[in-house]
Amino acid sequence: MLHIDALTKRFGEKTAVDSANIEVDKPTMIGIIGRSGAGKSTLLRMVNRLSDPTEGSIVFEGENITDLKGAAKRNWQSRCAMIFQQFNLVPRMDVVSNVLHGTLNQRSTFATLFNLYPQSDIHHAIEILDRLGIAEQAPKRAEALSGGQQQRVAIARALMQDPKIILADEPIASLDPMNAQVVMQSLRTIHEEDGRMVIANLHTLDTARRYCDRVIGMRDGRIVFDGTPAQLTTGVARDIYGAGADFSEAATSTEIETLDRSAKQAAEAVA
Amino acid sequence: MADIAFSSTQQSVSDIQSHYMEMVQRRRLYGGLMLLIFVVMMVAGFYTVNERNAGGFWEGLHQIGDYPADVLSEAWENRAEMPALLLKYFPALIETINIAAVSTILGVFGGLYLSLLGTRGLAKWPRLIPLFRRISDIMRAVPEIVIALVLIFVLGGGPVPAMIAIAIHTAGALGKMFSEVAENADLKPVEGLASTGATWSQRMLLGVLPQVAPNYISYSLLRFEINIRASAILGFVGAGGLGYELRNAMAWGPGRFDEAAAIFILLFCTIVFFDQLSSRYRNRLTEGQAQ
Domain named ABC transporter: which ranges (chain A) (predicted)? Predict the structure, then answer.
């Protein structure tokens, strides 16, 4: 489905992504892990074509994405939804309008200016919100919602695009553990029920392990690991994060369960 | 998902959908009415003006290109003399830029005082804040050209009346912009300085100015650009500089259109030059130095 070949992005002297190769043949839930600055965001932004690659190519179902321009590029972006760390909603507009922004690629500027979305789209938007459990927030302004709710609105906007791929750039990095779990579970459900490909940048190992079918590790712009969560041993993780022997998975965790786990380990160690 | 269960019990989806649709319908109605009123007023206004106009809009529309075409064709015929003409009017250009520069500098100082005296929390005499605000309102309400005409009547033609007129307008306009920036300044340093027994001017100079300087400089540069245009226009009423030459060249009609074209080129290049220069500096001031 998706072939990323020798994809490179340079900012001046600095190479943010260094000839990345990724091959995906069926809709999978992929987690990309690595330290901040490892090039994870840059990679996702290039797939969405928010930024242009310096070298290399992205091919999706036989179509070369890297060369698309103008309307064709925007059409690709509508088929390849993106979710951001800071949600990137329009704060002063209501939740349903924000979700309806997922259809902007099919609507003219005039129609969107006067809020002329078809009734079926509006109903569909509210159904998506209901699926994510936030339908009763529909008429509120996006800025009035909590972080977890806002991220679910962003996911609803992505679903409104009816995309083949959902890219999630650190979707849970600004959320508390409970909301992080709800958001990750939503992404997993979308992947399982709708069969959409999900590629998520995560900076915690255990989230990747728990929700993803495949994990890609990046370090300093290079892909240093590509395999199943089971293959991701502590040794490999230390390599990805460039950490010393004192590194433990619990240290990067945002999961509530980890607290119990590490408490138990500590208790065992004492015993 | 965790909370679907309790969310859908409160309100069914179809209820939410119909409520939201009602809201959308209302918004569309208001939006449509606003658009209708806007269009009706525009069309009505256009017809009123067109009836009062001597020539009429549609009758005159096809002639709109005639004058520029005359100027361009004549300038093209005499293109060989263009460098000499550019050189001839260069001193007038310098005069125009000088008027703009001096009036910007004077206006910045005036605006600075007006803004500090007219900002709550900073003013030296808090009771007089409305007074200073009204002064700056009046200074920017009167168009430069009106002040210049009055001053030319009193002082005679030349660059000085233009300079004073632009400086007055600049002080009023910058006073407003500066005081909006100063309102958001942090008052803690000012309080700290007051606790050491500093005078009002010392408090302003050391406590407020460092905070607001980047914004003030950026507004001043923008104002300088505007003032170059203003001083060129004031030349039309006899205040010297490039505008004066341009009016002469244009008023004499055919035969001197090549000179008008040369002046247009000079003016255009100058405005582009200063626009580029100041936007580069303003970017650097607002975004911080690029590494």
Answer: 2-245
> A132 and B1 in contact (C-beta within 8 Å)?
yes
Residues of B in contact with A141 (CB under 8 A): none
Q: Over the stretch B150-173, which tens digit does the pLDDT of each residue have?
A: 888 888 878 888 899 999 999 999
CATH topology of domain B70-287: MetI-like fold (1.10.3720)
CA separation for the pair B118, B178 (Å, rounded): 10
Give me the phi and psi of A22, to 5 degrees please: -135, 135
Tokens found for residue A44: 């996702």
The CA distance from B176 to A164, in Å, is: 52
Nearest to A115 among B3, B7, B31 (CB): B31
Distance from CA of A124 to the nearest CA of B (A): 9
What phi, psi does A220 have (nearest 5°)?
50, 40
CB B237 within 8 A of CB B160: no
Query: How many angstroms separate the CA atoms of A205 and A241, rounded?
Result: 10
Helix (H) or strand (E) holding A55: strand A55-60
pLDDT tens digits, residue range A179-224? 899 999 999 999 999 999 999 998 788 888 889 999 999 999 999 9
Cα–Cα distance, A254 to A264 (Å, whole number): 17
Q: Is there a contact between B11 and A138 if contact means CB atoms under 8 Å apart?
A: no
Residue B201 neighbours by CB under 8 Å, 6+ apart: none
Chain B neighbors of A130, CB-CB under 8 A = 4, 7-8, 13, 16
Closest chain A residue to the Cα of B20, Cα to Cα:
A139
pLDDT tens-digit series, residues A84-135: 998 899 998 999 999 999 999 888 888 888 788 899 999 999 999 999 999 9
Kindly state whether A116 is in contact with chain B, defined as any CB-CB distance less than 8 angstroms. yes
Q: What is the ipTM of this complex?
A: 0.73
Is A190 in the B-facing interface, judged by CB distances under 8 Å?
no
Q: Count of H helices and E strands in chain B?
A: 13, 0
Query: What is the 8-class DSSP label of residue A219?
Result: E
